[in-house]
Design brief:
four-stranded antiparallel β-sheet, alpha+beta, 16% strand
Length: 129
């Protein structure tokens, strides 16, 4: 029974072109997030492949010192309150883990990036940066 379910899932992934969507939308998101990195001093790095994306939050781009955990939490909570869920991880817990579903659209990606940008702007204003 489980083999039939697994086979059916693989068929749907192929029919819906989910893997192609991951490549296309993931590349699009990485490019959009690179613009966010260039816009905000606290975004030290954006990296990933497909829809597995990490965004590193730092106090300074040159030194790459990790942003304090409470400030990372503020950005994370702000995004959550605006309707976008991301994970936290990394050695110091300062990386935002962006792992949307395989069916994400470019419009969904734009929404997520806009929310991230707003949360970072809120952080900047709150901390006088």
């Amino acid at each position: 029974m489980s083999s039939a379910v697994g086979s059916a899932v693989l068929d749907v992934l192929e029919e819906d072109k989910c893997q192609e969507n991951c490549v296309d939308t993931g590349t699009y998101m990485l490019k959009e997030l690179a613009k966010v990195r260039d816009e905000f001093q606290i975004v030290g790095d954006v990296r990933g492949k497909g829809l597995m994306i990490g965004l590193e939050l730092v106090t300074d781009k040159e030194t790459r010192n990790p942003l304090p955990a409470d400030q990372v939490g503020d950005v994370w909570e702000d995004m959550k309150d605006m309707g976008v869920l991301v994970g936290k991880g990394g050695l110091y817990g300062t990386a935002l883990r962006i792992k949307p579903p395989m069916c994400i659209t470019k419009e969904d990606a734009d929404f997520g990036v806009a929310i991230l940008r707003k949360a970072l702007q809120n952080h900047k204003e709150k901390n006088g940066l």
